[in-house]
Structure prediction request, 249 residues.
Amino acid sequence: MIFPLTNKIEYKERVYRNLIKDKDLVSFQVKEAESDLYIRVNQDLSFYAQQVLVKFRRQIENYINSYPLFKNTLLPYPQDANAPKIIKSMIEAASQCGVGPMAVVAGAIAEFVGKELLNYSTEVIIENGGDIFIKSNQIRKVSIFAGESPLSQRIILKIQTQKNYRGICTSSGTVGPSLSFGKADAVTVISDSVLLSDAAATAIGNIIKTKKDIDKGLIYAQTIKGIKGVVIIKDDKIGIWGDVDFITI
Prediction:
């Protein structure tokens, strides 16, 4: 499986999904408001996936209606014992990385929908705006698009998830619509939580202004508990730390 993100127009249209190589799973797309999920599972679960997506989006929307600061803050949000589980998880992951909870909304949706679908499929792969939930019985490959960098789409991650699902999330200051205070072409984080990977990629990406900041980003990544590995690309330079299995092309 390869998910290379392309330019901003193509990102919006999600045409990178047409570049997926393997055809062993059933593929479909579900949408609700801003959420646009590309899902691959053992059987057609599109109707159920749509219901699950709506359920979790409603929980987030209802919470925002009651607590508007949750949506607007760029800083960690105080934990709320009475909030739905998805809200608590967003707060926890974002706080761990020093970012606002909405920085992990795409990862949260991918993970919570993914875990629900695992009740009916032994393999689940969900891509939500470049944030990926993977639970598969075989090695899956994910390429990293890094804007105008000469390293773009040359780094192919090999993801093994036979025992547990993984979250693979990428933040960029040069590609895509997500907010970043940095200028990294790509910061990709691997962990056992899509929410944590999403939050960490955002936080690390905020540090990278020039290629001289790559080492600083790698050092910071090592302070975030739970991260398995990270790849940072800026211009013609790359930094890698942790358990990252990859090939180059």
